[in-house]
């Protein structure tokens, strides 16, 4: 290893185009320990199936030979409103536990779809998952994590304050011994599973003198843990993925490599100690998060089995790392990256240019990629990008649109599914470029404090703490100079956002009689007639919106496939097969081969040799042969199934179930359904 580091440093010193992190040596690889993962069978006790986030089941009653006979078993409608669900449900002892469109938690009979109990928490529950452990349910909702009695749906009063603790998160927690581990925004927290007492925390953005704090020019924000986690219960290691630093596109506000953003971090489950980390993209300015939970996997190399962790990413990479050391199992290549020309921006010298495992999505846009579904579509898109920049990790330039892949995936939050029998990883992917424009803008003069208006005073009282005294932003609070452009929000909506909050912004109690003055200040309608004294001109970079590169009909502006299901052989690092996921029926009628569709669903794999997947705007759930990618079965859902399916067994009968509520980034009609399928009863 030492020799490898010296060689790497020498390559860097002589200015070579590439540098390589050597693969972990054979003698130091972690031998397989099959006890480290308990795959799902009759039960599906955690969202994503198990602590390894494998979304794999040993059930095989439904298999390649009979999946064509799969029929609708039951449909559950929550009846409490229509909304977008992303949760993979939990099923234990024949009972399904899941959130509803109306933000309740429910228990449903897994054989009939009959509701057993309902609980209404404060906030949106189990947005991206929950866990069942020893008769208890744990899930995040709003600013809380709840603990419920799974039999009754009642809060367990001994846990925190009346069954809940303060811990803001969205993904499924994990349980190690008596420890509940919760990814919470940009910090990972651990609590006593019975009492909710805090045990440890790990900052995904290092503070003070913590390791990695010198990789930020100033305290930053972002690095959120909304992708998820996995847990090795034998070795006591928690693996957490992290998003990008913020603000997106404007890296001059967070110079440095920005650990632990865009990283996979391994933590000691008992103490929160960092064991290792691996960063894919350094100083990310393109919003290319690691968006998905990692998968604990076992691979066969040179005839021997080793334990590893696989992390799929937005740009279509699969990071395959030794589970204990964090070293790659195949040589990991980086390439010298282009330099930014923007004032104050320093892009990283190196970015990933991975060869093995093979990327499962296109990573560099070019004019050759422009759609070919019709001459009209191709001409339309070419005209849209005539003045645009593009290229491998191309930085932004002032006023020049930049076209690149990855903002919508590659992989998305649903991540991958792993089949331990074959060592293959199954991942859904998007291939749709975005167009982003960063511009340098002159700032208005600072207000003269001697002529301060009432609206200015209201702003200083209620808003300046997050958005800066001069409206130039503080931390996560964006600058407000450009609110009057109407690009991000219309003026008529601003008072409502102030009163109720939106996203990370809380509700602000601005008195009604002060709202008009505040609005006049924000939109510069209260400027004094006398101009302020001369000041040094000030400038600020801002991104002037972003959008998908689409043709005149709203279809992706690149050659198909636009969405795909991919099988990656982790033993060789090769793509085993790749098939389009989803069908544009109008294009099919025009004789155009299946294009695939933009998707937000995620795959689930079974020992029956099948991969189940929905997530497309054609509203279908499908089953594929896990060895060949052949589509074996499909069924139309009542609404879009924009979450991964799960499988379980009740009274000897195997079921497939999925949340089908539509909405989200793909839009469509909103609903409130869970839909289950099974083979016809004997």
Explained architecture:
This protein is mainly beta. Among the domains are: 1-28 and 318-356, no CATH class; 444-536, Cytochrome Bc1 Complex, Chain D, domain 2. It contains seven helices and 40 strands. The strands form eleven sheets. Strands 2-34-35-36-37 form a five-stranded mixed beta sheet, with no helix packed on it. A four-stranded antiparallel beta sheet has the order 3-40-39-38, with no helix packed on it. β28 (416-419) and β29 (424-430) form a beta hairpin. α3 crosses α6. It is globular, with a radius of gyration of 25 Å. Residues 1-14 have low confidence and may be disordered.
Feature tags:
single chain; 682 residues; mainly beta; Cytochrome Bc1 Complex, Chain D, domain 2; five-stranded mixed sheet; four-stranded antiparallel sheet; 7 helices; 9% helix; globular; disordered N terminus
In brief:
The protein is mainly beta. It is built from 7 helices and 40 strands. Helix 3 (454-462) packs across helix 6.
List the helices and strands and how they pair.
Elements: H1 2-13, E1 18-21, E2 56-57, E3 71-77, E4 90-92, E5 95-99, E6 105-109, E7 115-119, E8 131-133, E9 136-141, E10 144-149, E11 164-166, E12 174-176, E13 179-184, E14 187-192, E15 198-203, E16 221-222, E17 229-232, E18 237-241, E19 245-246, E20 263-268, E21 274-279, E22 295-301, E23 304-312, E24 318-322, E25 332-336, E26 350-352, H2 375-384, E27 402-404, E28 416-419, E29 424-430, E30 434-442, H3 454-462, H4 464-467, H5 494-500, H6 512-522, E31 539-548, E32 563-569, E33 574-580, H7 585-589, E34 603-606, E35 610-613, E36 620-625, E37 631-636, E38 646-650, E39 653-660, E40 673-678
Parallel strand pairs: 2-34
Antiparallel strand pairs: 1-25, 3-40, 4-5, 5-6, 6-7, 8-9, 9-10, 10-11, 12-13, 13-14, 14-15, 16-19, 17-18, 18-20, 20-21, 22-23, 23-24, 25-26, 27-30, 28-29, 29-32, 30-31, 32-33, 34-35, 35-36, 36-37, 38-39, 39-40
Helix pairs in contact: 3-6
